Amino acid sequence: MRMPDGFLWGGATAANQCEGAYNVDGRGLSSVDVVPFGPDRMKVARGEMKMLACDDAHTYPAHQAIDMYHHYKEDIALMAGMGFKCYRLSIAWTRILPNGDDDTPNAAGVAFYRSLFEECHKYGIEPLVTICHFDTPIALIKKYGGWKDRRMIDAFLKYCRVLFENYGDLVKYWLTFNEINMLLHMPFMGAGLVFEEGENVRQVQYQAAHHELIASAKAVQLAHELMPGCMVGCMLAAGQYYPYTCDPADVYKAMECDRDNYFFIDVQVRGAYPVWAKKRMEQAGVVLDTRPGDEEILARGTVDFVSFSYYSSRCISADPEVLKNKARGNAVVKAVVNPYLKSSEWGWQIDPQGLRLTLNTLYDRYGKPLFIVENGLGAQDTVEADGSIHDPYRIDYMRQHIKAMLEAVNLDGIPLMGYTCWGCIDLVSASTGEMKKRYGMIYVDKHNDGTGTLARSKKDSYYWYKKVIETNGEDLA
């Protein structure tokens, strides 16, 4: 089996996990810049602990990350060496508009991304750009409370217009928000939300969701207006929920969890809130503040394709006793250990078949072309005395998932645009803030304590993935 001609093989990163240079050349402070390493990380990410500036009591690995800001030409050349057809990356909002809604863009930021995109095209690599990847400008959080406030929509569209007018000739594929459903799990990371005492958390989250959904729909319309022929997609953190048993209560619980996961995408693809979501908001006492014309905006701003991250499936039960056996992997998603699956050293359960199931489920639900924009294994790597890095565990993980992807396309007929594995180059982990949790096929000499030369080197998986791309997925040995 092989992928069809034109399939977009590549890799993916996020600006806040790889660029570094967080205060260089006029870049403003963003929400991801103040999420610290250590025990307070998730408290801040969830909006439970207010942190709108950096302090001396915490460390912030993303401030330097792997310094791709100064190494991007070397890094893109390494990606080209693997034969990449596509590179999924994000733009740092505050590198373009330092305060989030500035009247004049930051010229250095605009020039940086133009040079980066030109470097991609030099090697025949198509950029796939995420407009907002977990980075709400701190200035807008202080000014509006993040996406709690409807005025964020105009700020976002101002930002989008700058991108589309400056890069429309270089970028064909766009995503509005990264893992938009994470707003319900990591509200500060996802939408700049900090909860005050006495606030109705669900009301705030769903109101912010409404604002992001309106912003996404308007961005889609603006992109099509300014860049005819472009494609704009949505993006979710995917992974099918399995019922822990065939007890109908478990089956229903799994369906409910899947619905929560698909809530945003239902709106972005179908152009309207699903009936179950309206009912759930009603039962939670949530009353959305909407404006005349919102329904029409959502209906007219539907996306062209559905992209998603997939690392693992999830397993869920309605039994409180079973729920005590919580899966270790994804700290922000409620799930229990699936006894039929093995786990990575960080506790993420490995389920290649779940990728094929997820692809089929998403296409059955939406009928839109799909794009796998994140998939990978976080693991510790050892550099041998001769400088080589043997990572058979990563190769095996990717082999099994690419095989499942090939089956979904060749045996099930799923229209899949591309596959960009996560963290093609080592970067800071979003969930833990660690460097030792490595995803890349390119090793970066940088460690949890901040030491390292930042030198790049190739792992065994680099050469393996190069062969996979050369044969369009036919040779996975």
UniProtKB/TrEMBL annotation:
Transmembrane segments: none annotated. Its EC number is 3.2.1.86. Belongs to the glycosyl hydrolase 1 family. The active site is at residue 374. Keywords: Glycosidase, Hydrolase. Coiled coil: none annotated. One of its GO terms (molecular function) is 6-phospho-beta-glucosidase activity. This is 6-phospho-beta-glucosidase. It is an enzyme of class 3 (hydrolase).
